[in-house]
Write a structure and sequence with these properties.
Layout: E1 25-28, H1 32-44, E2 48-53, H2 71-76, E3 80-84, H3 90-102, E4 105-108, H4 114-117, H5 122-128, E5 133-138, H6 153-159, H7 180-203, E6 207-212, H8 214-219, H9 224-231, E7 248-252, E8 258-262, H10 266-275, H11 280-283, H12 290-295, H13 297-309, H14 313-322, E9 327-329, H15 333-336, H16 340-345, E10 348-353, E11 357-362, H17 386-392, H18 397-405
Parallel strand pairs: 1-2, 1-4, 2-3, 4-5, 5-6
Antiparallel strand pairs: 7-8, 8-9, 10-11
Helix pairs in contact: 1-7
Length: about 400
C-alpha cells in the first residue's frame, strides 16, 4: 500500500467497461506534460489513445521518477496504449500514415516545422484522412516571432504575467512549483479537440488545433491587461491577499497548522466580524466597505489572525463552520487523502499497482451522471501494445518481424 493510503483497499482496473468516447481513436506523439494531460482527458472518457514512443527510451515523462518509480507516467499514462516507432525511417513513416488514416485525432508537440520536414504535417495527413483533428502543442504557438523558441512552461509562466503577480510584494516573482502552464494547456486542448470532433462529425472535415502553452495560462489571468490599461498599473504581488476583496488570507493556528479564510462578500464579512466578537468593525469607517477594508488590510488581518491563532486547526474549522463563515484547512499532498470529504467523494482513488501494491491518483474528472469516465487500465509498459496495433492496421506477423529487425519498432 502507498504511504498516503488512508486505509482504502486498492481497486482493480475496470477492464472492458464502456465509456462515451469508445469510438474515438487518438494517436499521441507528444511528450512530457501538456500533451499527456490532453490525451489523458480523452482516454479517461474512453478514447483509445496510442502513445507512439521513442524506441528503447519512450516518453520523457517516464524519466521523472520519485522514490525510484515513474509516478508521473503511472498517473498520466493510465488508460493509454504504447507502441514504439521510428517514424523518421520510411517504413516507420508508413506505419504512422496508416495509424493516422484510421485515427480521429493526432497530437504532436514538436517545434513548428518538424512534422512538415518529416513529411507528416497536416497537409500530408489530411490527404490520407480528411477528417483528422491534428493537434499541435507548443510553447508559443505555430505563428509569431517566438514560434521556434524552446517552449518550456516555466518561460510561459514568467512571460504570461502569472509569476509577476504571484508572491509577496517584498519578494521576487514566484514560479509555480508544478507544470501549471502545461496542465492548463492540456485541459484547454482537450476541450478544443471535442469542439473539432463535433465540427468534423457535422461537416466531415478535420482541422488543425493550435495549442500554445502561453495563451491558455494567460487567459486564466482574467481582466489583468484591462486593469493595467484603465488604472495605469498592473496588478501587483499581494501574497495570499487579493485586490478584489478583504479579508482574504491564510492564517496560522495555535498548533502550527494553517487556515484559509475568504470573506469576499459584504454579508460574509459582517458574519465574520460578528463571529469573532467584533461587530463594531461593521460600522467602523476603516472597515465599513470592501474598498475600506482593502485600504486597511493589515489591520483586518491582524484582528482576524489573532482570533484564529488562539485555536487549534480542528477547533478553528469547527467554530467557523458553525458560524457559516467560509474557511478551510491548508493541506499538503500527504494530508488531503485523509480528509473525510475527499474520502467520501472519492476524489483520490487507490488503484492496484504491480510495483507498489496500491497507487493513489486523482479520480476521473469532471463527473458526468449519464456517461462517466472510467479508469480501465494502468500506464502501459514501453511498446506493450505494438503487436495489437500493428496487426489492426494490416501488418501480419512476418511484416512485424521485419519492422523489428530493421529497428523501426
Amino acid at each position: 500500500m502507498s504511504r498516503t493510503d488512508p486505509g482504502t483497499p486498492p481497486r482493480p482496473y475496470a477492464q472492458g467497461a464502456s465509456a462515451p468516447l469508445d469510438d474515438v481513436r487518438v494517436v499521441d506523439l507528444s511528450r512530457l506534460v501538456a500533451g499527456n494531460m490532453l490525451s489523458l482527458m480523452l482516454a479517461d472518457f474512453g478514447a483509445e489513445v496510442v502513445k507512439v514512443e521513442q524506441r528503447k527510451r519512450g516518453d520523457t515523462l517516464r524519466d521523472w521518477k520519485d522514490g525510484g518509480h515513474p509516478l508521473y507516467w503511472k498517473v498520466y499514462a493510465r488508460n493509454k496504449k504504447s507502441i514504439t516507432l521510428d517514424y523518421k525511417k520510411p517504413a516507420g513513416k508508413e506505419v504512422l500514415m496508416r495509424l493516422a488514416a484510421q485515427a480521429d485525432v493526432l497530437i504532436e508537440s514538436f517545434r513548428p516545422g518538424v512534422m512538415e520536414r518529416l513529411g507528416l504535417g497536416p497537409e500530408e495527413l489530411h490527404a490520407v484522412n480528411p477528417r483528422l483533428v491534428y493537434v499541435r502543442v507548443s510553447g508559443w504557438g505555430q505563428t509569431g516571432p517566438y514560434r521556434n523558441r524552446p517552449g518550456f512552461g516555466s518561460l510561459v509562466e514568467a512571460m504570461s504575467g502569472f509569476a509577476s503577480k504571484t508572491g509577496f510584494a517584498d519578494k521576487p516573482p514566484i514560479l509555480p512549483n508544478m507544470a501549471l502552464a502545461d496542465m492548463v494547456a492540456g485541459l484547454q486542448g482537450a476541450y478544443a479537440v471535442m469542439v473539432a470532433l463535433r465540427a468534423a462529425a457535422a461537416g466531415g472535415a478535420g482541422q488543425v488545433v493550435d495549442v500554445s502553452l502561453l495563451e491558455p495560462l494567460f487567459s486564466t489571468l482574467g481582466p489583468d491587461v484591462a486593469i493595467a490599461r484603465v488604472t495605469g498599473r498592473a496588478p501587483s504581488r499581494v501574497g495570499n491577499r487579493t485586490s478584489i476583496s478583504s479579508p482574504r488570507n491564510i492564517y496560522p493556528t495555535k498548533d502550527g497548522a494553517w487556515v484559509a479564510l475568504s470573506a469576499s462578500t459584504q454579508g460574509m464579512c459582517e458574519r465574520l466580524f460578528r463571529a469573532i466578537g467584533r461587530p463594531d468593525m461593521i460600522e467602523d469607517p476603516r472597515f465599513r466597505s470592501n474598498s475600506d477594508r482593502l485600504d486597511n488590510a493589515d489591520q483586518v488581518d491582524a484582528v482576524v489572525g489573532a482570533f484564529i491563532q488562539a485555536m487549534d486547526l480542528d477547533a478553528a474549522i469547527r467554530f467557523f463552520e458553525a458560524a457559516e463563515v467560509t474557511v478551510g484547512p491548508v493541506y499538503d499532498a500527504a494530508q488531503i487523502v485523509h480528509d473525510p470529504h475527499v474520502i467520501g467523494r472519492e476524489v483520490v482513488v487507490e488503484m492496484e499497482d504491480r510495483d507498489l501494491g496500491a497507487l493513489p491518483m486523482h479520480a476521473v474528472s469532471p463527473r458526468l451522471s449519464g456517461t462517466p469516465g472510467v479508469i480501465r487500465s494502468p500506464a502501459p509498459d514501453l511498446g506493450q501494445h505494438l503487436d495489437e496495433i500493428l496487426e489492426r492496421i494490416g501488418y501480419d506477423a512476418a511484416a512485424r518481424r521485419r519492422l523489428a529487425e530493421e529497428d523501426v519498432t
